[in-house]
Structure formats: C-alpha cells, structure tokens
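2024-03-11 09:14:02 DEBUG pipeline.ingest accepted 1 chain
2024-03-11 09:14:02 DEBUG pipeline.ingest length=446
2024-03-11 09:14:03 DEBUG pipeline.predict start
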Amino acid sequence: MNDSRMMKLGVLISDVGVHPAAWLDPNSPLGGEISFPFYLKLARLAEAGKLDFFFVADTLASRAGDMAGVTRQCAYTGHFEPLTLMAALAAATQHIGLAATISSTYSEPYNAARMFASLDHISGGRAGWNVVTTAYAPAAANFGRDMQDDHALRYRRANEFVDVMNGLWDSWDDDAFVRDRASGIHFDPAKRHPLEHKGEFYSVKGPLNVPRPPQGRPVAISAGGSEPGKELAARTSEVVFSVDRDLPSARAYYKDLKGRMAKHGRAPHELAVMTALNPFVGETDEQAQEAFAELQGRIHPDVGRAILSVDLEVDLRGLPVDEPIPEGMLPAKANATTSYFDMMRQAMGEKTLTVRQLYEAVAASRGGMNAVVGSPKTIADRMEEWFCDGATDGFMVRISHLPDGMEKFVSLVVPELQRRGLFRKDYAGTTLREHLGLARPQTRRG
C-alpha cells in the first residue's frame, strides 16, 4: 500500500443486528435490544478492535403498516433512546467514540446542543452527532403533525438547525470559565456570546448553559444521498455515511461530495466519507456462505414485503413473492430516504428481480446492496480495494447479527486489516476528533 492514510472504521448497531431475521438467530439474546449489559459488551468489543466510533441507529416511531410483517420484526419496536444510552456507555468505556442520532425535524436545537455538549463533557471528548431529517413518515403523528413535511422543507430546516447547534457550542470561549475563588469571578463576561439567532424556523437567544465542549464541537455526521443532503454534508459535515452498490458509483460519489467543499471554504480532508459495509464473516468463504444462506432463509415473506413497502413508499402486502413488482406500481421519486429508493429502482431496472430477490438483497445490506460474505481475507480484500482506489475514507460497518457478527469482525477482519497496514493497532489520542484525524474547530470569533 503506497498511501500512508489509515482506514476509518465505525460500527452501526441496530437492535440485535441490521438483518431483519437477526433476532431469530439462536445466539442472539432475546431482549438484547433493550439490555444495557448487551450494548456495553458490544461497545467494549468495538473498543477492543480500536474502532473509531460506536453508533446506534434510531427512529422516532414504532414500525407501522401491515401487522403481519411488523409483528415478526424486532427493529425499532422496543428500543433505547440513543443519547441516554451513549451517556451510560461513556461512563463504562475509555476510548471509543460515541455517536447518536438527532432529528432536525422533531427537535429543538437548544435542547439538542445542550445534550450533545453534555455527552462530550461526560465522555471526555468522544461525542458525535448524526443529524437526520427523519424519513419515516409515521413519526409525524407522534409530534402533533398530520403529515410529514416534504423532502426540500426538511432539508431547509436541517441547514438552519446545524447552524444554530454550531453557534450554541460557540457560546463560550474555551477559557471563559475562570473559576477564580480569590476574586470571586466564576466566568469572564467578555467571553460569553449570546447567539441572538432569528431565522426561518428557529429563534434562539442563547448562550448555551453548558461550557464549550472538549472537542470544541461534537463531530458532525450525516448521510448525504440526495442533492440537498450532499450540499448539507459538503457545507457542514465531518463524517458522511454513504451507500453505494459498486466501486464506480462509490468513486463518483466520493469525487462529487469532496468537489462541493471548496465553495464552502473547506478542504477535502475536513470530511471523511465512510461507505456502508455489511460483512458476513466466516472462517472460510464456504462457511460464511452457508451461515449467510441460513440467516436469509429465516426472512418471512410478510417481513420482506413490509421492509420493501417502507423503503419504496408503497403498500406491497399480498404481492406474490416470486414475481416482480408490477410495472407502474412504484412512485416516481421518494419523499423519504432518497438514496435507498434510487438504488433499488436502479437495481430493478438493470435486471428483473422478484419481490423475494429484492427483499433478500435489501435484508443483506439494508439498501446499499454492498454485502460481503466470506473469509477475513475476502472481506479485507474488498475493503482494501475500495479504500486504495480512492472511493472511500473508511467504512461504516453494519453488523448483520449480534453479538456473533461483531465478535468475528473484531477478532478476524480487524487483525487482517492491521496486518496489511490499513488500520491502527492502538488509539493515538483520546477524543473522537483525534481518532478521525479531524482538527478541533475554533469558535466563530477565532
């Protein structure tokens, strides 16, 4: 490898695994999705593997729709609020970054900035925040709204939300709290900066009633697939989750996103693109394929149709699973998760997929269709190819079933990456910014 860069690795945890049949695996603990000891075990495994950060996926509504499919799924039905979970994990870990989702559509920036600043202080500078506009339409009814805002409006709100959050974290200079007992002065008023923000969606006076976070600002994370999402990421994000079906697509996305940064006064190294990777690890390729097929075979057709119904924004209940989705049944464009929707439409256009084939592909890799099934060498080969080709800065590892999938990735794949000189053997710093090679931002006043 000629590049001295190190691959960045985060892990995404969704209940007991991102695969819809994960909870049916006999080695996954029943009720693990609401067990703190289970999440702590996973976070410590990630930390033992020297991963950059631990991220828990979230949504603001229990699954809705066809109960025949919903009742057979574990995902998001009983689920921890992620910031509460991360605060608990912070006290029981030392190095791993801790990232959580916040919805710009259904949150107030003052509360959100206060919570993430608190998490950064509690963890000693290990907090990351993933801003989402909330694509899941049933969430609207939990916040007194009759329907979900359209995609463009949600992103206008998100842009202002991010700006207010950053402004609030800059409410105080780093040395504002002098705490001088001799003079009796607790803070220097010249280093206190009310925000005085009045915008389209928010009016926030400030300042924040938490000192500036140890990292200056928690690491900003987003998933920019749509045009507004990519613009938001290029302007404000420091980590971007991407979903790409193949190497050419990943390469084009990477070049596009990094190329947008200059107009916002940013350099390409200020943002890390981390591609979704769904590894299914076995001692050998054959062993991995056999175990993977067994997990895929546990997907009930009702579950498969329910998953596609959410991602494709159409009711597919009752459709024969061994026939294609009828022409003209799908909407022309998405109002929810644009990147997943567009990729599935593209895949369906390239070849005729039955409902079963499509939901199996989605289940394996949650829309990105980038599942890698095989030995540690097979998985590391794929990761090295994409990383060295300039298609990504690292990977957002999405574990299919827990805890086995995490244990195998950390004990088998990570050592192979380390042997190749692609990933660190130990943490070099204490903060998430240091793990990711990101500079600590100055306040807006320099």
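2024-03-11 09:14:41 DEBUG pipeline.report The chain has 14 helices and eleven strands.
2024-03-11 09:14:41 DEBUG pipeline.predict end
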